Amino acid sequence: MSLLATPLTFLLFFSGFTVAQIVSPNCESTWSWSFNSLNQDPCKVAATMLGTCNGNTFTIGPLQPGYSYYGPSGVDDSNLCKCSTVGYSLLSACGGCQGASWITWSEYAFNCTKTLPSPQFPNAVPSGIRVPHWALLDPTYENLWDFNQSYIAGDTPEVLPGQVPGSPASSSSLRGSSTPTTAPAGIPTATGGHSSNGGAIAGGIVGGLAAISLVVAGLLFYRRRRRLLASSAMPESAGANVFPHMDQVPRPMSDHETLASSFPETTSLMKPYCFSNPQNPDDPSTYPAFPGTPNGSYIPSQTTPLTSSRNLYTVATMPSPQPQGYPGLPMV
Questions:
Q1: Torsion angle (degrees, nearest 10) of CA 64, 97, 127, 14
Q2: For 188, phi and psi rounded to 5 degrees?
Q3: Which residues pair with 131 in a beta bridge?
Q4: How many CB atoms neighbour CB 222 within 10 A?
Q5: End-to-end distance of the chain based on CA atoms, in angstroms?
Q6: Contact (CB, 8 A) for 156 and 130
Q7: Of the candidates 113, 111, 54, the residue with the CA atom closest to the CA atom of residue 81
Q8: What angle do CA 45, 48, 51 make, to 5 degrees?
Q9: Please, are residues 110 and 165 in contact by the beta-carbon 8 Å criterion?
Q10: Could you report the per-residue pLDDT of 219-256, keeping only the tens digit for each?
Q11: Cβ atoms of 102 and 68 closer than 8 Å
Q12: What is the spatial distance between Cα 46 and Cα 49, in angstroms, rounded to a whole number?
């Protein structure tokens, strides 16, 4: 029995002294801004922190350009180290520093049965490691790990060994609010061209305002053109309703009108009267009768055609009455 127990005892003895294995790929030198004060890259820090939920053992394989690390699936859906924003940010930076890409927070945590509020983490930082300050930023605000915000935040203040990220003893929860700077050349973006929701909202507002401006301009142009068409399409005879008789041709002149008569056809003037019998100064019987005499009357006469443009009608002249008496005899 002792011989059989010896190998088992040997295995159990050495199993307690198994050295934790943390395996991670290397990052490009252009991402040195993301290294901690111990010159540890994001992949090294990510493997170490995620290993605290896996017996201090964790392996992160290398990525090719165009690929990204995905979140928990299956047996590790309840792994709070993975289902934390700190783990997501570290893995996203690990993919970016290899020239690969990363996915959104909602895609990463899709299978998680529970997630921790940002920037909480379930375990303390192990010895020999430090968590950079940019890993504590809240990616849920824009649903994406933001390279520019992380670049601005930098490494310090760090979460030191023995401290729990997100606890009062560590750095407080921060959300990047500084103006993003231009990313260094060659920095990849999120998988599928994901961008921040803030940029999409701003673009939507600008596009909506431009569309509204075009619609208003179109309506104004349509109304103005409609007025112009309505005024140019007015019929020529429409003026007769406003100014009657303006389109009528002048009628021929009658015998009693001047060359520029403007009287309507229904307008007439009374014809003048003249004495029918010619007057003879030597014959009193040819003198006209006056009102009050037995035969006093006015007899209308026919008009004589116009002989001059200065006269409208020809009117006979009547001489002044002379005193009655015997012709040729002197008055007594």
A1: 10
A2: -75, 165
A3: 159
A4: 10
A5: 206
A6: no
A7: 54
A8: 145
A9: no
A10: 888 888 888 877 665 554 444 444 344 444 444 544 44
A11: yes
A12: 5
**Contact yes or no for 118/165 (Cβ under 8 A):** no
The 10s digit of each residue's pLDDT in 247-286 is 444 445 444 444 444 444 444 445 554 555 566 667 766 6
Do 279 and 319 touch, CB atoms closer than 8 A?
yes
Tokens of 225: 């053109």
Instruction: Report the distance separating Cα 88 and Cα 72, nearest Å.
Output: 10
102-to-62, 69, 248 alpha-carbon distances in Å: 13, 6, 88
Give me the residue label for tokens 């991670």: 24
pLDDT reported for residue 213: 86
Mean pLDDT for back-to-back runs of 10 residues, the chain (332 residues): 38 42 94 97 97 95 94 87 97 97 96 93 96 96 96 95 83 42 53 46 74 86 81 52 42 46 46 56 64 45 44 46 52 48
Using CA atoms, how far apart are residues 184 and 151, in angstroms rounded to an integer?
10
Radius of gyration of the chain (CA): 59
Q: Where exactly are the structural domains of the chain?
A: 22-196
Separation CA 213–CA 81 (nearest Å) = 50
pTM of the full structure: 0.51
What is the 3-class SS of the chain, one letter each residue?
CHHHHHHHHHHHHHHCCCCCCEECCCCCHHHHHHCCCCCCCHHHHHHHHHHCCCCCCEECCCCCCCCCCCCCCCCCCCCCCCCCHHHHHHHHHHHHHCCCCCCCHHHHCCCCCCCCCCCCCCCCCCCCCCECHHHHECCCCCCCCCHHHHHHHCCCCCECCCCCCCCCCCCCCECCCCCCCCCCCCCCCCHHHCCCHHHHHHHHHHHHHHHHHHHHHHHHHHHHHHHHHHHHCCCHHHHHHHCCCCCCCCCCCCCCCCCCCCCCCCCCCCCCECCCCCCECCEHHHCCCCCCCCCCCCCECCCCCCCCCCCCCCCCCCCCCCCCCCCCCCCC
For 139, half-sphere exposure in the C-beta direction (CA atoms, 13 angstrom radius) is 33
What span, in angstroms and rounded, lies between the C-alpha atoms of 150 and 36? 13
